[in-house]
Structures are given as C-alpha cells and as structure tokens.
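Teaching assistant here, posting this on the class forum so everyone can see the example we discussed in section. The complex has three components, and the goal was to see what a joint structure prediction looks like when all of them are supplied at once.
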Amino acid sequence: MKIAIWWIRRDLRLDDNHALHAAMRWSDQVLPLYIIDPALTGSAYTSDRRLGFLLGGLALLQSDLATRASRLVIRHGTPFAVLGQIVEELRVCAPAATIRIYAETDYSPYAKARDQAIAATYPLHLVSSPAILPPGAVVKDDGSAYTVFTPYSRRWKATFRAEAVKPLPAPVILSTPAFPESDTLPASAPPPGPEFPPGERAAARRLAAFTEGAEAPIARYATDRDRPDLNGTSQLSPYLRFGMLSPRRAALAAYRAEAEAADEPARRGAQVWLDELIWRDFYITILDRFPHVRGGSFRPEYDKIRWANDQAAFAAWCEGRTGYPFVDAAMRQLRAIGWMHNRARMVVASFLVKDLLIDWRWGERWFMQHLLDGDPAANNGGWQWAAGTGTDAAPYFRIFNPVSQGQKFDPTGDYVRRWVPELSAVPPKQIHAPWQLSAADQRRVRCIIGQDYPHPIIDHQFARVRALEVYKQAFA
DNA sequence: CTGCACTTAAA
DNA sequence: TTAAGTGCA
C-alpha cells in the first residue's frame, strides 16, 4: 500500500497539475493537503484580501475534490510539524503503508529553506514549478543566468516547444484515505470582490474570454494593455499567483491566439502577452538565482541611496491623495479591488521612489499588503525595475512624469474619474493637472484644489532634479 | 572587442 | 533625437 500526500502550496487546481499527477502515478491513495502556515498568514507581507482569495479557492477545491470521491485536508501549523503529524496519523491508520509527499517546487527563499528542512526528515518529492520553464532551463551558453529580459526571452522562446506540451487532465476520480481528519476552513478573511471570483473554473473562463475567438481582447493587447481606462489586460495575475490557472495552459493559449490571429496587430498582441508570461518566469528565475534581491538591491551599490522616507508623504501615496490624479486613481484602485493596472503600477512606483524619494521596499511591502496577485518574485522584480536598482533596470535618469503619463495612457480621464470622483466634472484637458484650473473654473467644476482635492504633494520638476542628485551621490 | 539593443521617457 | 548606462552575442 502506497499513500501519497499531495501537499498543495501555490498550485490550487486539478487541471494540468504535475505534483498531483506524480502523486497519483506513484501511489494507491492520494491525500490532498493544504497547510495554513502562520509564518505566511502573520507576515508583514500578507494581505487579508489575498488570504480571502486563497480561502475562497480552497473552498472550491474542496467541493471539486468531493465530486471526485476525494476530500481536502486543511491543517493549521508550521509545515514541518503538520507533515510530521499527518505522516504519524497515516502510520497509525495504515501501518503497512509506504508514505511519500509530493509538491510543486517553489523558489522563494522562505519556500526553499522550508522545503530543504522538510526533505531532510521526510520523503518530499518536488516536481515541476510555478514557472512555465523552471529556473535553470533558460540560461546563457556558459550556463550562467540572464539578467536582461530581452535575451532571456529570446532564449526562452527557442527552448519552449508548444507542440510538445500536453496539459494533464484533471483526475475523474481520486482515491483518498478516510483519515486523518481536516480542520474546518477558516472564514476570517474578507472574501474577494466581484472583480476576481476565485477558483480554477473562473480562471479558465477568464483565459478563454481573453484569448479565444475573433473578438478576443488579446488581439488588441499590444496597444490596449497600456490603457488603464480600457481594461485591456487579461487580469489573470491573481489566478497565476495561486496556480488556479496552469501557466502552461496560458502559454499554449498565447501560441494558439498567435497562430489563429486574423491580422498583424492581433499576432503582435499574442506575442506581447506571451512576453508578459515570460517576464513572470524571468523574475521567478532571478529570485531563485539572486535571493539577496529579497532584502536589498540587485546591485549592492544602489543600497547607498539616501532616501528621504517621509512618513506623511508615504501615507499620502498609500491613501491616494498625492494631488496627482493618475497616481491617486491607481492607489485607490489598489485599495478598492486588490489589483492595479500594470501601467499604473509603473507610474506609482516611479512616483514613490523618484518623486518622493521613498525606499522602494516600502512600496514593495504596501503592494504585498494589498495585491491579490502579490508574489515575492514578480513584485520585487517590478519594484527594483522601477527604482532602477534591479536587473535590466530602467536607467535611474528615466523618471516618469505623472502628468504626461496620465495624458498619454488615460487620454479622456475615464480612469481618473472612475477612482477619483471628486474630479469627475474636471474637463479631460485638465484632469491630469487640475491645479492649473483658474479659481473660477475650480468653483465651476466643484473641485477646489486644496479643499476638495489636494495640491500636488511635491512639484514634479523639482523632484526630478532632486532624484537625479540623490542617485548620483550614491555612486560618488 | 565592438556594436546592438534596452517593458523608454522627455525634450 | 538623445542618453546621467550596460548586458550580451
């Protein structure tokens, strides 16, 4: 008798699940297990809303398993202790059984240390990865890791063989031991809003809606993706974060959309979206190979930047009252729905780091505390890119102008009006710089600057020069 | 070594 | 068009 524990971590799905598949192939019975780890739920990088999304996904997985004659075991505790208990309980119920643990490999420093300690004591088998191509699969000719995205993506595309990828179907039935028992699933965290229903079914629907058919948004992705007012992105990031969607399925959908594209812009759209999936692999690889990025700059010399770190300015940024409408809209969107458009992420990050001279780690932590898709690899990579401290970084002298970014990517101001209602009567021409309205115009649109909406927290032209000085000093 | 290219912005 | 910079083939 062989019993496999399928230890679920960030692969909350039955479809195309390599860890589950390996567990089934080896064993006679599979015990699906999710461990609610206090080190993760109690961390300063946790979001209650993300926890709610996770719990919603677990509830759906529970019912999906029930329809397959199986069940989900939930346990609270440190993974090492819980796995020890489960193994012990299985040995009592099935003394003759051989037991193994199967899980998908994970690459954050915490996950690697955790798994290494467990593997030293228990038969832990790690398979596959949350990336499409795992760390180590895409390397330079000399075997070293890429630190620039474009050559990485070229090699990635030469390595990935879409025609050879055969997603694994979800099991129809899963034989599961009747013991040990499960804790009840907690309901303490706020459930996600209607924008992001959890679960692999919702993820599959969203992937299909984004990629399938002649009218699919992916066909316009190359241009619409930069427009937060148009919602031209897939909004699949929370599902990829928890593995409610197989990243291989996503990549295959991109290849298929490219093959079936009706015209050149549509083909381009599919290629650009695939690149976004490759960015995800890239940052997973960077965090694996350069784990020091978790606490500091990829380039150590950038740790010498003398941040202003003004608490009041940070609070204004967090709460969306910087006086720059595009920045404020984005920050309010984040708090309202636990997600922010990618173009907006770049702009608010540049504003925090370059205009307010606040340590990028503060922004990184705030994002982790609010994003449904908050992921240590992608979030860290994005922040270091924006701060100019990372791999493949934007040179530090490239500083986003929050007004021209708004005018360019939210030309009618729809995005600003949606999230900053006090500006709703400001004409499109002035909506990204409302302080330029005359006093009479401010009265007419019922938005007095300094009263109904804040003055700009800092003058961008001044801040730009200051940031260049401070960055230059760090290298002197 | 040398040229090319860079999730590119601003002027 | 430039570039306060640099990885990669």
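For the discussion questions: The mean pLDDT of chain A is 95. Residues 2-128 of chain A form a domain with the Rossmann fold fold (CATH 3.40.50.620). Think about how each of these relates to the inputs above.
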